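Module 6 notes. Inverse folding takes a fixed backbone as the condition and produces residue identities as the prediction. Think of it as a translation problem where the source language is geometry and the target language is the twenty amino acids. Below is one complete input and output pair. Work through it position by position during the lab.
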């Protein structure tokens, strides 16, 4: 049982409630109050015990709600009031989830805080396209990068290091920056025909995915994606030709094998 006055940062996974860990499910059931993000699915929240206070603190680009400092304060106050606090975050809390701010706020207030990991969007996206993120001999490195930029601002990323033909890039929050990602990676040496997969709403019933190439990424991101969360996978490991490996669907035998 969660100790009263404790905070758990819990990974809610990419959306499909079956991709929650058993520990996350238990913590959600035990919580007295749950502060949850915009990307946490309704079916995940349905697992909370009736009577649990559910507080939406979500942020989606462009649509403002509570700022980070307010969230930090809310979780600390709830814990100091003796509540069993779950801070539920999409995917894994330690990946582009502002977990550090919340950990530090809790520690500064003397509030015990722990992390329950979750399935990150890149893993769900790979599952969606039925591909491996690493590929023996061809993709020995996997880089998680966020391409979130403020409107009108240039992304400050080390493009020369990112443009590694032997790596797979998993780009989070990259929809708006897709044209820049494509242009800078090609300038830095990746070829225009480098395989790209776009996966929107990974693991959810409305999941969609598209295979394209790096030089066509801007067009694909603009025309193919809706307004759901989307992950951009770049590199030889995610080349197309594979049939979506969703439940009940046949898996293509032509997929690149990494075994
Ligand atoms: N902590 C999260 C990431 C938060 S950043 C994790 O580990 O997955 C938010 C970004 O994650 C979104 O902009 C999108 O790029 C990606 N993302 C989250 N859920 C997703 C999903 N179901 N499908 C595709 N991308 C997703």
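Target side of the pair, the amino acids:
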């Amino acid at each position: 049982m969660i100790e009263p006055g404790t905070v758990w940062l819990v990974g809610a996974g990419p959306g499909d409630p079956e991709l929650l860990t058993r520990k996350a499910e238990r913590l959600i059931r035990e919580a007295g109050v749950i502060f949850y993000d915009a990307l946490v699915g309704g079916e995940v929240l349905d697992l909370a015990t009736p009577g649990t206070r559910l507080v939406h603190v979500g942020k989606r680009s462009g649509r403002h709600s509570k700022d980070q400092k307010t969230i930090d304060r809310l979780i600390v106050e709830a814990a100091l009031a003796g509540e069993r606090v779950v801070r539920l975050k999409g995917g894994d809390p330690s990946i582009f989830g502002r977990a550090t701010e919340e950990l530090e706020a809790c520690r500064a207030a003397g509030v015990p805080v722990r992390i329950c990991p979750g399935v990150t969007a890149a893993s769900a996206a790979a599952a969606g396209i039925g591909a491996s993120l690493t590929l023996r001999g061809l993709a020995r490195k996997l880089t998680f990068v966020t391409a979130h930029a403020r409107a009108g601002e240039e992304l400050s990323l080390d493009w020369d290091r990112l443009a590694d033909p032997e790596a797979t890039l998993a780009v989070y929050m990259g929809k708006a920056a897709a044209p820049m990602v494509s242009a800078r990676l090609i300038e830095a040496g990746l070829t225009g025909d480098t395989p790209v997969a776009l996966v929107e709403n990974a693991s959810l019933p409305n999941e969609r995915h598209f295979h394209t190439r790096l030089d066509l990424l801007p067009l694909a991101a603009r025309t193919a994606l809706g307004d759901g969360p989307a992950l951009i996978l770049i590199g030889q490991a995610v080349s197309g030709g594979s049939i979506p490996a969703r439940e009940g669907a046949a898996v293509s035998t032509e997929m690149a094998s990494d075994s």
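Reference fact for the lab report: The chain has two domains: 7-116, 121-252.
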